[in-house]
């Protein structure tokens, strides 16, 4: 901590004395940052370039003891708390204005026990950290599709990607957590300890405490999978999506295929005349025997007359990073999402109309193919409520210039409203922007009331409210 920071600090409506800040710094293995520190701006910068918030204090934690001290300090001083893992959340909940940001990004340890096929992961680890460590032993954890995403937020909100249909959601593979609750106490939550808290953490996001360690069940997975892209002209999109929908009805759990619609980036395997033109991409991965994958993907690859087909054997770690170049930090992002039980012709028509009105070259719609093992878990078994949906839509507005904000946001909102009558009503909370506070209860469906009870027990003052917030009150709409 810079000596210049040792003055009384105005944190929101609270004045924090310099002596208290100095005492906190002395308790830590990590660091306390204020705006006077050289690395402050770097520490407060997160993936979504629209988020420009300035915490009064940033505690960069080196371990669980630092987290305990930071939580207690925030509670004692009445500070707003934000918790950063990977800093990837679209709503920007990793950083707050005028409060205390608990930065877990230095805590990146991943330890694998090959004999039990388990991994212990700290909350600052990214999906790339987890993938590289587990694949060294031909093991894997089902996670997401962008390797720079943090494991903590992904897990607590759900976690779905290429292995979900075979092995379930990330949270379905969670065995236990160490979590610092709002009173600054560390507890272990699992199926046998603090079962109510463990239930809530599997889908309830950061509402109930700060997780300092995750214990996961891993699965055997070869280092090579059959994966890649099949790119179609947008003019064929309606027929391609209809046949895609039909092909998935008999897809084995090992096969996942997502549909992406956008303007073509300058991919090396595409003819240059397609750069910047609207395309539909089928992105697929078969997590099993390569030869069997060839048969399983045949129906999808036989659809239409693609511009390019680059499906083939691929290192799983490499495939997990394939979309990273399109999701680099710093751009401005706004998302809207729906769950769908089915992809009806009407819904397809709405999606295609939106692509014809794309506001920019980085805006896209993707349809995530889920179900399989994730769909064979009862809705009440975890806080994550939607086990019946076969597809998750993400309307991903992405752009660079602030002057494009309203145009891109309006495009996403129009599509969201047009598709709403055909959606399941629930939502994937990791895809929810900051302006969807009124949607949280519906997102959790019948599980919401139970979440409120757990919130009231473990965080009655709502210290952890920088999230898709479950309020510890019965009256709806109360502050």
From TrEMBL:
Gene3D superfamilies: 3.30.465.10, 3.40.462.20, Uridine Diphospho-n-acetylenolpyruvylglucosamine Reductase, domain 2 (3.30.43.10). Keywords: FAD, Flavoprotein, Oxidoreductase. It comes from the Bacteria. Residues 51-221 form the FAD-binding PCMH-type domain. SUPFAM superfamilies: FAD-binding/transporter-associated domain-like (SSF56176). Belongs to the oxygen-dependent FAD-linked oxidoreductase family. Its cofactor is FAD. InterPro entries: BBE, FAD-bd_PCMH, FAD-bd_PCMH-like_sf, FAD-bd_PCMH_sub1, FAD-bd_PCMH_sub2, FAD-linked_Oxidoreductase, Oxid_FAD_bind_N, Oxy_OxRdtase_FAD_BS. This is FAD-binding protein. It comes from Sinorhizobium terangae. The keyword Oxidoreductase applies. GO terms for molecular function: FAD binding; oxidoreductase activity.
